[in-house]
Design goal:
CATH class: Alpha Beta
Helix content: 40-55%
CATH superfamily: Aldolase class I
Radius of gyration: 20 Å
Number of strands: 8
Number of helices: 11
Strand order of the largest sheet: 1-2-3-4-5-6-7-8
Largest sheet: 8 strands, parallel, barrel
Bound molecules: SN-glycerol-3-phosphate
Oligomer: single chain
Structural class: alpha/beta
CATH architecture: Alpha-Beta Barrel
Length: 218
């Protein structure tokens, strides 16, 4: 299972990379806008800082605009994946870009049928937004399960990239279902590691290690 960092913050990306925890990065206009810097320079820096794929989203909602932006975005790094929204124009752009061997991440996916269309349009990744679905009383993980089932029925090669992750449980359930990728906010990535019994056990070992050192010194 691959972990992507859902962030446009270079410090977070650098830290996650130092710990060897991430295989790629996903961004969106909201994450880029949060950084208050020139977004194109930032996006190019993120591509440089990241070994794996970096998803950059088109701003246009029309077909020609998406293709034109995609052509410019792929100049920002060899690892750019074009994020297109799951609309009629987005699907059309996905098909055109995929036919030119440009990887597309179909974003804003909220139904299994949208995911089926994304796969048929040749998307490299499909991004079901689990947290936003849970927030309106639906089940994000049920959507992921249905997408995985459909893709496996027909052997689609589109990777299921679980997005809009809010909790470590979302990551756990994605792994249990066999999702290809989870794109994780930095704070949730840190939470994956935490366990009170690890802290408690470490404190006991530290105290006993101190006693052993003290005995050796006397
Ligand atoms: O990057 C796509 C997605 O993970 C954003 O999720 O719901 O936290 O804005 P959200």
């Amino acid at each position: 299972m691959k972990f992507f960092l859902d962030s446009a913050n270079l410090k977070e990306i650098h830290k996650a990379k130092e710990h060897g925890l991430i295989d790629g990065v996903t961004t969106n206009p909201t994450l880029l806008a949060r950084e208050n810097s020139d977004w194109k320079t930032l996006a190019a820096d993120i591509c440089k800082e990241t070994k794996g794929p970096v998803s950059l989203e088109v701003f246009s909602e029309n077909y020609q605009g998406m293709l034109e932006e995609a052509r410019n975005l792929i100049q920002l790094g060899p690892n750019v994946v074009i994020k297109c929204p799951c609309t009629a124009n987005g699907l059309r752009a996905c098909k055109a870009l995929s036919d030119q061997d440009i990887a597309v991440n179909m974003t804003l996916v909220f139904s299994p049928l949208q995911a089926l269309l994304a796969a048929k349009a040749g998307a490299a990744y499909v991004s079901p937004f689990v947290g936003r679905l849970d927030a309106v009383g639906h089940s994000g993980m049920e959507l992921v399960e249905q997408i995985i089932q459909i893709y496996s029925n027909y052997e689609f090669s589109t990777q299921v990239l679980v997005a809009s992750i809010r909790t470590p449980t979302h990551v756990l359930e994605s792994a249990l279902l066999g999702a290809d990728v989870a794109t994780i906010p930095f704070s949730v990535l840190l939470d994956l590691l935490k366990h009170p019994l690890t802290d408690k056990g470490l404190a006991a070992f530290r105290s006993d290690a101190d006693k052993l050192v003290e005995k050796t010194n006397h």
